[in-house]
Amino acid sequence: MNARNLFVFSLMILAAVGLGSLLIGNPLGLLRQILVTAAVIGIIYFIYRKWFSGRRTGNNNEQRAFVKAAKMSKKRHKRKPASKPQVSNVSKKRPVRKKSSANLTVIEGKKSKKNNRASF
Asked: What distance, in Å, lies between the first and last C-alpha atoms of the chain?
């Protein structure tokens, strides 16, 4: 193990020992400490969402209008066109392929002539 993994592992062991001793010695104190920590995190999250997150999105009315327009756009694009009568596969005609107008020529090779590789 390298030094970082050893440090993290020993820190986790110390945390587990401390949590176990606190649970055995003072379970209500542990519960109170967990609740206070959760409440502080909740308050900080609420403050962040209320003030900092709201300022980036702009005007609330503009945001609502944008969401409404996006929903209408999705509905418009989801509409299926008028259904066409179904035609069976047998009666469907395959499109005729247009022949390529490329002029291809054959180049004669020298297959019958052997190379003397020893002379190279």
From this structure: 60
